[in-house]
């Protein structure tokens, strides 16, 4: 009896291993993950037509957000700062339009002495055809992040991709 169970299991495994291998399809993604490696808590607000409650991102923690849409048709801004008052913020801004996600980083409202500038930040995307952003530690005028409202740093990528913003 035990022999027949073992033989049956072995036959099943042999059949399964003979089946053609189909690589896993890419995840539908559609998220941004924000990783805090700054060395202190980071405060964040995900803002659309109305401001959302502040969230605290502890050192070493990750915040995840699936793409949202703004009821007024505008974009979403995830504001990140090192103080609860929101006076000095780095912004990950995005607008989902069909299958595309238009996005940028904005340092317009970020003070030059912010720990976020001291630590630096980068955005990577799991779709290698998409542009990424890297702002080196201490780079107060990073050309890959908006410094002025009329900069031209908006990028686009398939919304099915997954973004990772690493602070520090």
Automatic annotation (TrEMBL):
Highest taxon above the source species: Eukaryota
InterPro entries recorded: CetA-like, Osmotin/thaumatin-like_sf
Keyword field: Signal
Leader sequence segment: 1-18
PANTHER family associated with the record: DOMAIN PROTEIN, PUTATIVE (AFU_ORTHOLOGUE AFUA_5G01990)-RELATED-RELATED, SECRETED THAUMATIN-LIKE PROTEIN CALA
Name of this protein: Antigenic thaumatin domain protein
Source organism phylogeny: Eukaryota, Fungi, Dikarya, Ascomycota, Pezizomycotina
């Amino acid at each position: 009896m035990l022999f027949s169970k073992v033989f049956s299991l072995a036959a099943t495994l042999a059949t399964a291993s003979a089946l053609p291998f189909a690589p896993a399809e890419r995840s539908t993604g559609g998220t941004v993950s924000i990783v805090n490696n700054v060395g202190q808590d980071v405060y964040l607000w995900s803002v659309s037509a109305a401001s959302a409650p502040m969230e605290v991102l502890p050192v070493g923690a990750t915040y995840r957000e699936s793409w949202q849409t703004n009821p007024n048709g505008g974009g979403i801004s995830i504001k990140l700062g090192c103080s609860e008052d929101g006076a000095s913020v780095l912004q990950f801004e995005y607008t989902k339009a069909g299958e595309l996600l238009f996005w940028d980083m904005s340092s317009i409202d970020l003070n030059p002495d912010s720990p976020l500038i001291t630590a630096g930040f980068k955005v990577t995307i799991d779709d290698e055809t998409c542009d990424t952003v890297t702002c080196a530690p201490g780079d107060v005028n990073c050309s890959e992040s908006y410094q002025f409202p009329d900069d031209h740093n908006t990028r686009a990528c398939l919304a099915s991709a997954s973004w990772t913003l690493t602070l520090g």
